[in-house]
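MOLECULE: protein
FOLLOWS: sequence and fold
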Amino acid sequence: MKRQILLLITLLITVIYFLCKPTALSDTDTSPPRSRITKVVQLANSYLNTPYKAGGTSARGFDCSGLIYRCFQREGIELPRSSKAMSSAGTLVQRMDIKVGDLVFFTIRRLGNAINHVGIVSTTNNGDVQFIHSSTKNGVCVNSLNEPYWNNNFVIAKRITP
């Protein structure tokens, strides 16, 4: 009987320890947990084929920054509303270190010389970075950073922290 009680107490202490244990994120990792980023990307993906709408932030139509703003907002992560302002948030990421959920920023020359377009990385595979964005021509769609147009207009990538 004493042995069973001792075993039960040991089991209870072990369970309490694991329930109270800190999360697996390191002290230096300030990015949102990957599950939140996965949800942001999944939400962006769910809006594929939604039409472009200047100033749009809903399923009736998005502009590029409206799509990103809305998807992060739904996960409780606040971002500035414009692509240029968004590019000041987060941590700079080298192109070879881009991960799913990172933001990619562009300067579309016909629209000016400052950052004026943003997308969110949906997949990476051997250097091929696919991103979801809202374009004036195709609405919410996926393109590759390796496509000449996007490669030539790419400026920076950022990893957003909450």
Summary: Residues 20-31 have pLDDT under 50 and may be disordered.
